[in-house]
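User: Let's play a game. I give you a shape written as tokens, and you guess the letters that built it. Ready? Here's round one.
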């Protein structure tokens, strides 16, 4: 009985051993076939590395502010009887914008002017009498005081009337009208926005570590998405007196020429400040650079003598590079590649060291030093 069990166990061991052995043999052959199988080439975009002139620069988002800008309001209450402007109109300093009802005030002015005339006559009469010693000096002093008081009342009433004639405080462009004829207007109610358009301020922030690189009257360029490659030139005209304790940035104000009045207060754009000496730098699209824990990496292609389906095959190699400044879609490379090296600009994430690749340059990544700035 025991002998039969032993024989059975031996037979089962032989059977299972054969099965597992055959499975291991098949798996090894599959792995061998896979390892000997040639990987299909990876389609990538690439471009020769080229050098460009770089001037050290700082770029920041800037907001536009009017040199002068106010919400025109009235100082006194009253009923609007006339509006003398149109929305969007250009005005000069002193132009009449709105008139309030002045009928009662003008009647009061006429009454005060009559009182002034009477006080003047009485004052002059007493002057003659005092000169002839026919009236005491005290009467003349009292008449003079009443005359001056009457003059002051007239000036006060005239000032009130002037305040009911609301005028432009400076040259500029009006916004949208916010009041209507016949409306009773309280003091401080906005009538219309008035903005001086030329010149115009561009306010931006600079990190404190770059503060030593800029100075008063330094040239700047401002770009905004209002048309094809519109560049406005200006100069730095003011620095904030302190650095922000939270952001460690300092606010800077530049003054731009805006003779065409395309720029408007409240717009955002890109300001560029150049400093330092120009130098030649290898320049690549930012998409060509990938990062890992060991540094920045690019893939460089070397042409081989092989081809597939009529396309030349390239062999890829990984290069560690030292990158510098960026401008727009471009990045400067100071070390790791040479001019005319064929650098992968798109599809590098699919490559590994030594992988074969084919070129497909139908679509190239953005490579502009001045990309479009969204208009906010």
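Assistant: Ready! My guess for every position:
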């Amino acid at each position: 009985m025991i002998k039969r069990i032993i024989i059975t166990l031996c037979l089962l061991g032989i059977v299972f051993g054969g099965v597992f052995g055959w499975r291991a043999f098949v798996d090894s052959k599959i792995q061998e076939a896979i390892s000997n199988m040639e990987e299909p080439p990876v389609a990538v975009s690439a471009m020769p590395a080229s050098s460009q002139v770089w001037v050290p620069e700082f770029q920041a988002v800037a907001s536009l502010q009017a040199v002068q800008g106010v919400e025109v309001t009235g100082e006194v209450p009253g009923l609007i009887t006339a509006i003398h402007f149109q929305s969007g109109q250009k005005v000069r300093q002193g132009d009449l914008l709105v008139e309030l009802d002045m009928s009662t005030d003008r009647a009061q002015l006429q009454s005060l002017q009559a009182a002034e005339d009477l006080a003047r006559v009485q004052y002059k009469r007493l002057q003659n009498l005092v000169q002839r010693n026919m009236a005491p000096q005290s009467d003349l002093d009292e008449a003079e005081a009443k005359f001056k008081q009457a003059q002051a009342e007239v000036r006060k009433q005239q000032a009130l009337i002037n305040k009911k004639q609301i005028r432009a405080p400076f040259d500029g462009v009006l916004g949208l009208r916010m009041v209507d004829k016949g409306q009773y207007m309280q003091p401080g109610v906005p009538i219309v926005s008035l903005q001086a358009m030329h010149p115009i301020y561009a306010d931006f922030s600079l990190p404190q570590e770059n503060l030593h690189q800029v100075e008063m009257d330094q040239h700047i360029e401002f770009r905004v998405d209002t048309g094809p490659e519109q560049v406005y030139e200006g100069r730095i005209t003011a620095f904030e007196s302190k650095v922000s304790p939270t952001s460690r940035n300092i606010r800077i104000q530049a003054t731009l020429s805006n003779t065409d009045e395309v720029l408007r207060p409240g717009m955002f754009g890109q300001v560029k400040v150049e400093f330092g000496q120009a130098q030649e730098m290898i320049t690549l699209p930012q998409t060509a650079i990938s990062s890992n824990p060991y540094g920045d990496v690019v893939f460089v292609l070397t042409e081989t003598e092989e081809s597939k389906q009529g396309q030349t095959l390239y062999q890829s190699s990984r290069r560690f590079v030292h990158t510098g400044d960026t401008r727009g879609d471009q990045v400067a490379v100071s070390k790791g590649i040479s001019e005319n090296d064929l650098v992968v600009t798109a599809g590098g994430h699919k490559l590994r060291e030594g992988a074969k690749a084919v070129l497909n340059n139908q679509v190239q990544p953005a490579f502009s030093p001045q990309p479009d700035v969204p208009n906010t």
